[in-house]
Records
---
Amino acid sequence: MSEHILFLTGKLAEPQLRRVLEEMNPEFGYTVHQLGLTVAALMTADMIRRRLKDTFGATRILVPGRCRGDLAALAQDLGLPVERGPDELHDLPEFFGKGKQKPDISRYDLLIFAEIVEAPQLDIDGILRRARDYRKDGADVIDLGCLPATPFPHMEDAVRALKAEGFRVSVDSLDNDDLVKGGQAGADFLLSLTEESLWIADQVAATPILIPARHGDLDSLDRAIAALEAKGRAFIVDPILDPIHFGFTDSILRYHETRRRHPSVEIMMGVGNLTELTHADTAGINATLLGICSELGIRHILATQVSKHARKAVREADLARRVLFAARAANRLPKHIDDGLMALHERAPFPLSRAEIEALYQQVKDPSYRIFISPEGVHIFNREGFHSAENPFDLYPKLGVEQDGGHAFYLGVELARAEIAQKLGKRYAQDEPLRWGCQVDAPEQQTVDPHAYKPAGTTLQKAPSPEPDTTE
């Protein structure tokens, strides 16, 4: 039996849904049925149970993505599978195409070393707190940075405390004594050894990260590699990434040359020299550098979060490595895999044109305001009128909410979100928070249970009664 899908919708969305489906020309059969409510996003499982009297020969039912309630129980009652579609009906083509085979981003083969740069200035508890945060964001190894001419008397205790909590640890120092002590305390990795300090590797079990004896001297790196290979020791090499205008392009070429000379050695890239020292959003920088790592088989990076603008670098690197692994494994471009690295913009920010928004306005018969955005600006309307502006302040005099503080506050919040989304090119959906990719923990997005009903917002809740006056 061929598939026949029943699409449930509301009055306002029905014409758009029919148009989208006609343009899709899908291989499956379908029926569009509106349940007698105006806004499809307000649909609930209980409402469907009460109002749906005919399933029109469907083999499954698709409801709006924001439909609340227990769909599993509803499916059992109806005797048909019931599932949520995308939040925006204009995303249906992707839902039935690329969206059905969403790539797996659970896998990666690159390790993130997250450096606690100011470790000597933190106590043990402070180091552990930072390490836990890094681990939550995706770090695999906690790197203890030792500062020049700064005592770090608790370094060995810090290594042991981290190991006791199950962390892998590296010690990062220009002082050979620090490296020896760190290795003897149980560190897993040491940053960094040259051909002149290889003797340290003979005294500890830690895996050394090798750098050139002199900046850019790959021949010295070759000799260090040969020496450790002769001893059968594991190691990682780092040709050193330089900042822009201070050798950046040449340093990228060094990584390429190192891979050419040594096809199978493990390589590290310290990405912080670019993310920290370039005032640009770091998500794109991380994605580009990890793309180079993916092409060259570089499976270790050293990330830092010192500058305020780089405070999400570890989280970005974690997502970037997953996206790039998925792209490489599928032999495809790193597109349409995950949108978490796009914080400022989105692939399809304006699902409706102004003409389509105005067509929606013609169907509205109630006083509730709807807010939409298009390339032309922010649009707000109800049955009383349609208003557009680029600046939300121009809209306030037309809304008639001067005597309704709660409504005015609500519309102010929503119009501010809409303005931000319209100017940046982001998706805006009324009553939903803006999405900022992996940059922001959005509790409203992450903890919403689609099986539960959304509570009333604070502007709709009854104000608490004043405390009674108990004075005499």
---
Amino acid sequence: MAATQRIAAVAVVAAACAASLAGCTTGSDSSEEGAPGPQQGAGVPRSPVRLIGDGSTAFTGAQPHLPRPERLKPGAKPPQFVVFSWDGAGEDSQHLFSHFRRVARENNATMTYFLSGVYLLPEDKKDLYRPPQHSPGRSDIGFNDREGIADTVKQLRLAWLEGNEIGTHFNGHFCGNGGVGEWSVEEWKEEIAQAKKFVKSWKTNAGMEDASPLPFDYDKELIGARTPCLEGQKNFMKAARELGFRYDTSGVNSQVWPGKKEGLWDLSMQLVPFPGHTYEQLTMDYNFMVNQSGTTTQGDPDKYEFWGDQMRDGLLQGFQRAYNGNRAPLIIGNHFESWNGGVYMRAVEEVIEQVCTKPEVRCVSFRQLADWLDAQDPKTLAKLRTLKVGQAPKHGWASFLSVRPAPAPKGVPGAPADRQ
């Protein structure tokens, strides 16, 4: 099964990415039915289903369970946002996609799932993929089989209906020499177009014409991404801006409030404490692994528990630093992988359980965070960006954000009513 092959292939890709700042990925399976998502938005769409193209996707109305972004009131303390995101999201024999959907529901969280387009392309149709600077049918993370495609589509469908975001991790995941870091703006546009195409034509490519569609228009759903191994960001952002994307999360930053770069919200992953070390660590499972067991994805079993605790505690220390300090959103990236016995999955789950139910904490998708940032007064965000890592306002939030902001634009809660 291609779904199983992806797991083996990732070890090879991880070795190739050892010197990079971020890692690589696979997919997961579930027979469970969808459950209600966080109760903070509209209900299930009631609009008639309008099939798109071959019926692989469909417009079903507004996405359910999305909170309405609200502008901060003068003197109010910002909520503590936490974003959990998954690179190359797919459902394979590990069942991690379905597992973390359940974990999210149980902890009032929504997340972002970055789908690799080749996970919806069967192995026998791989030549349909024409990667920039590579021969047709080439992919460093393989392709899928029809069972894996059906399982992945099911999880994508349920995830979206629960209020989660479906982003993109592109296709072939090429890193290093000949990889995405060498792609031009036009080559990035070509890669993005193919990622969209594989999502919008999975039924035809997999021979599943009678299957149910994905319940969203992917051209409108797709507003952000994370590049493979965090490479090629400069040209990707230029392409993304021209294509109407709203954010990028391919960079590395400290725990400070985000601003815009190339017209996109720069929602980079961040550096957090690395317990036992004097340097800080990127908020991604792959980077913890590389700094613990190197390029070996299954290191010394005697260290598994310690390594998992080390990642969990580092993320929690980063959370507390923001929660009790400047309230900068915490951005976390992961892969559906069982590296080092699955300790990073355990660590992430424990962090979700400990932080997402705390007062004033919102575990959201990148889309929801971008929506909230767009709703704020630019002067308020500029003031927030003056706070350093872990720095709380000296005289409290009421004083720090006491200046009355400019009126909110129409359509944002808090905006003045139209005068007749």
